Amino acid sequence: MIALTLAEIAELTGGRLTGSPDATVSGTVTLDSRAVAAGDLFVAVAGERVDGADFLPAAAAAGAMGAIATRPDDALPCVVVADPVEALGRLAKGVHARLVERGLLTLGITGSSGKTSTKDLLGQVLATAGPTVSPPGSYNNDIGLPLTVLSADERTRFLVLEMGARGRGHIARLCRVARPRIGVVLNVGSAHLGEFGSPEGIAEAKGELVEALGDDGTAVLNADDPRVIGMAPRTVARVLTTGRGEDADVRALDVTLDESARARFTLAAGGERHPVTLQVVGEHQVANALSAAGAALAAGMTPAQIAAGLSAAEPRSRWRMEVARRNDGVTVVNDAYNANPESMRAALAALAGLSGSRRVAVLGGMAELGPDAAAEHERLGRDAVAAGVDLIVAVGPDAVGIADGAAAAGRRAGEESVHVPDRATARELLSEVLRPGDVVLVKASRSYGLEQLAADLLAEGDAA
Ligand SMILES: Nc1ncnc2c1ncn2[C@@H]1O[C@H](COP(=O)(O)OP(=O)(O)OP(=O)(O)O)[C@@H](O)[C@H]1O
Ligand SMILES: [Mg+2]
From the CA of 338, how far away is ligand 2's center (Å)? Predict the structure, then answer.
């Protein structure tokens, strides 16, 4: 973070300062007392199990220069506030405003699927043009976004922010913390459909990003998604479109996939054409790459620089299409970070594109789909069969419908379409049936923890 005195932090957050006003925070801002280093600011947030305020002495002992907390502690200077998360947002807002004055360019990304993937591509592309803050992982909420903002400093030229929403008003709130000049909307799917009620409700919420842009800004919209391009009238910013169609400003031509399901295409933008070879896996990454390209173009990069940056960009965040081959010749694809119907289909398409003898999909439930959940799981089972999956292992009670759907679409129940109660049973079954040459996709919603199953499967094959 930029260096700030405790007095400045109290002013920006509207908190009451106890202890020395001149103490200066020069390090990072953290919520985890175990991660505190000398000079840091500790923000004591009450979680489900522990109250951060209990760790104020520990943070002080680790060298924290000060804290934001709901109660003071003699161990260190404190800025006392009613709501530390809200204070974190205010602090980030204040710091962001100062950095923008110094020329920082902020880019925001939202959409139902692919925010982190696109942020990782864009962050790496922009980094070839100037110092960029775009941390790995999915820091897209009221805590993660301010922390990302606060990790920028006077040297930062580009700040890439992931913006998530679980309801109306969330993205508008994030934009009040750090208003982007460039806003990217990827797609409108069914992630968190349960909370939003309808895809229109999701479009309404995601569009808050383009509504927040000023007339000096650029909205980068995916023209291949009607609900996204439909947001154009909601912004005063310039609109730049991306997609496969002829009308898009930034296009991908001649898309092909290699045997590792990595896409190659020609990037057409600004009257130029340049080849791109992606390192990330799956055709869905073409759309993400185009969105990243549109944003980088709006940020002033040339199409040639962008194509080179996209081609050099590597996977950065864990558990998203992580492809690894075991010593025994089984390939494990760990895409267990999260799942919704669209991302499941994208992953199944990528599985189909990977070379191997048999395709195996180990799928857990998709959370938060609302009343359509049962039908969506069954449809997914059918789609997996249509995508050419040979063996489907549905894991956990919520995934029963996937096995039913696969069986209805022709996979022999109990043999080619199997439902197992938990991860341990899945693992036992797979260690019996997997053969060299098999390609195994592991995917479910975050809460099902299937990334551990993927890790176990990998370790097992290497031990063999
Ligand atoms: N453009 C896309 N269209 C459909 N599915 C995608 C797309 N990009 C990524 N995915 C799928 O979605 C999964 C999650 O990707 P990613 O983490 O980038 O999304 P996210 O929007 O950041 O998710 P979250 O809301 O959990 O933060 C990936 O593992 C992949 O299966
Ligand atoms: Mg994410």
Answer: 9
Residue 78 beta carbon below 6 angstroms from any ligand 1 atom: no
Q: What is the DSSP letter of 234?
A: G
3-state helix, strand, coil in the chain (%, to 5): 40, 25, 35
Q: Is 116 in the pocket of ligand 1 (CB under 6 A)?
A: yes
Q: Quote the CA–CA distance of 185 and 222 in Å, as a whole number.
A: 7
Please state the atom number of ligand 1 nearest to the C-alpha of residue 112. 21
Query: In the structure, what pLDDT confidence band is assigned to residue 463 with cuts at 50, 70 and 90?
Result: low
451 lines ligand 1 (CB under 6 A): no
Q: Is residue 288 within 8 Å of 121, Cβ to Cβ?
A: yes
Ligand nearest to the CA of 186: 1
C-alpha 102 chain-centroid distance: 28
* pLDDT tens for each residue of 416-458: 999 999 999 999 999 999 999 999 999 999 888 899 999 999 9
Structure tokens at 353: 């594109």
**Is the CB of residue 453 less than 8 Å from the CB of residue 447?**
no
Segment (H or E) for 290? helix 284-298
- Atom 7 of ligand 1, residue of closest alpha carbon: 114
Whether residue 244 contacts residue 216, with contact meaning beta carbons closer than 8 Å, is answered with: no
| Ramachandran area for residue 192 (φ above 0: left; ψ -120 to 50: alpha; else beta) | left
* Ligand 1 mutation pick, 193, 338, 442, 443, max ligand atoms within 8 A of CB: 338
Q: Which residues contact 132 (CB under 8 A, 6 or more apart)?
A: 123, 126, 156, 157, 158, 159, 160
Instruction: Report if pTM > 0.85.
Output: yes
**pLDDT digits over 134-178, tens only?**
998 999 999 999 999 999 999 999 999 999 998 999 999 999 999
